[in-house]
Design goal:
single chain, 504 residues, alpha/beta, eight-stranded parallel sheet, six-stranded antiparallel sheet, 13 helices
């Protein structure tokens, strides 16, 4: 349920005082602006067959090669200063050494993690790893529940700079486990940024989540909601969620404490350049971490240019650290805005699904009922490319809601014992027989069709500006001109015009 749809400029400006109130109750933050870096999960997942997939396997070579590209290709100089290992780095059997410590898989990490961290540090790159507040990670590797103190000590001894802690287990343990890990990190003797996935497991209603408790538990940032999948439907649904709950989430965003909508898809071929620019703009406006989920060895020049856009990064890293908001009603076109430390305002003109007036009716879909196939599911065409994304450990209700919210989702497969399956772009390639699965399909499905560019207007009064206003185009790095009362721009389908407005 959305918290609100329209936010007046008074609400946008008032966030400075609200955020300062939350930040004042905790110690000096370990990270003053949203973290930036690269993470392996979105592309490399849990690929551990290094004989067959030697270039894409989760191993020492992968992280060293990504470190090298981070430095050589200008990402480090732009601010992307972390390399993040995600799941599947641990040895499975035995799960811990004779001292009770987690250890990396020796076959895939022969030099060990102290050496890997030293390699990154020698290049001025921060070393980030992953665990979970459960007996096992989401990929069924050993995790940290009940071992918080020794694991924090181990991570500190390796030189870890950033720790992402997932859920993956009994949610009743999280109110105990996450604070225990936070305290253990504080006592470890090393300054380690603490990323908590706690709220991502607490449903959709951001107003009901205990963010004050997370801050008191030393969380520097937290994954709020669903995992991003490599497609526009997933990306746009996260943007909608941040628009709906922006006033709630912004209260907790401040130096050292950040809401995390998940990784940047920019650099992958699952979204267009226009859609990649939209993610960069919205993530910058909402003061989100900029953690790339791509293969740094294989990025197009156009998407690299988006990732390295110094003006967009300057908005994201602005020292005021105020999370921006959607300031117009939720709709096919929207205006987003963020106050900046020099008195200017960053504005995004977002064309989510705009059409010239009158707009055609939305595609007919239904979430009140599903076509259900037993002992299998209707498969999407195009092989793996026909999947929007796969999931594990989800409830049927949560997956139905995710597919319902995604206009590009035609249906999904579901294996109940593991909560596993895949969301489908279509169901056109016949029945896949498997007695463990049930298929769920929308009774009437037509994906949204691209529309032409549309004009979107920001009224200066809505962002606290009056008189003559200078408009600077963040994408072209050029001054557009001086305007009075409002500014309009033509924005492509799924695109976002990104501007910095300053009083002339």
């Amino acid at each position: 349920m959305a918290v609100c749809c329209t936010v007046a400029v008074a609400g946008l400006l008032a966030l400075v005082a609200v955020q300062s109130g939350h930040a004042a109750s905790v110690s000096v933050p370990q990270v003053l602006t949203p973290p930036m870096g690269w993470m392996s999960w979105e592309v490399f997942r849990c690929e551990v067959d290094c004989l067959t997939h030697n270039e894409t396997c989760i191993n020492e070579y992968l992280y060293k090669s990504q470190t090298d590209r981070l430095v050589a290709d200008g990402y480090l100089d732009a601010g992307y200063d972390g390399i993040h290992l995600d799941d599947c780095w641990m040895r499975k059997v035995p799960s811990r050494d004779i001292e009770g410590r987690l250890v990396p898989d020796k076959r895939r990490f022969p030099s060990g993690f102290k050496a890997l961290g030293d390699y990154m540090h020698s290049k001025n790159v921060r070393f980030a790893i992953y665990t979970a507040e459960s007996p096992h990670t989401c990929a069924k590797y050993p995790a940290s529940a009940g071992h918080e103190e020794i694991d924090a000590d181990t991570f500190a001894s390796w030189g870890v700079d950033y720790l992402k802690v997932d859920g993956c287990g009994d949610r009743s343990y999280y109110p105990t486990g996450y604070p225990k890990m936070g305290k253990a990190l504080v006592n470890s003797g090393r300054d380690i940024v603490y990323s908590c996935s706690w709220p991502a497991y607490l449903g959709n209603d951001e107003a009901s989540k205990p963010y004050d408790v997370m801050i008191a538990s030393h969380c520097n940032l937290w994954r709020n909601w669903r995992d991003i999948q490599c497609n526009w439907g997933s990306l746009s649904s996260i943007i909608d969620h941040w628009g709906d709950y922006g006033p709630v989430l912004a209260k907790y965003a401040a130096a050292g404490h950040f809401n995390d909508p998940d990784m940047l898809l920019i650099g992958n071929d699952c979204i267009t350049d226009v859609e990649a620019a939209t993610q960069m703009a919205i993530w910058s406006i909402i003061a989100a971490p900029l953690i790339m989920g791509n293969d740094l060895r294989n990025i197009t020049a156009s998407q690299k240019e988006i990732l390295l856009n110094k003006d967009a990064i300057a908005v994201n890293q602005d020292s005021l650290v105020q999370q921006g908001l959607r300031i117009t009603p939720k709709g096919d076109t929207e205006v987003w805005a963020r106050n900046l430390s020099d008195g200017s305002v960053a504005v995004g003109l977002y064309n989510k699904n705009g059409h010239p007036s009158p707009a055609p009716p939305p595609p007919p879909t239904s979430c009140s009922s599903w076509n259900i196939t037993q002992n299998g599911y209707l498969e999407a065409c195009d092989g793996k490319q026909g999947n929007i994304g796969c999931f594990e450990g989800q409830t049927l209700k949560d997956v139905q809601q995710e597919c319902c919210d995604n206009p590009y989702c035609a249906g999904f497969s579901f294996e109940a014992s593991k909560g596993y399956g895949c969301l489908k772009k279509n169901t056109d390639c016949g029945m896949h027989q498997n007695n463990s699965f049930v298929g769920y399909d929308k009774p009437s499905f037509t994906p949204p069709q691209p529309g032409p560019p549309v004009n979107i207007t920001v009224n200066f009064a809505d962002v606290g500006l009056s008189g003559s206003v200078k408009v600077y185009d963040i994408w072209t790095h050029k001054q557009v001109g001086v305007f009075s009362s409002s500014f309009s721009a033509e924005v492509p389908f799924h695109g976002t015009g990104f501007y910095r407005l300053t009083k002339a």
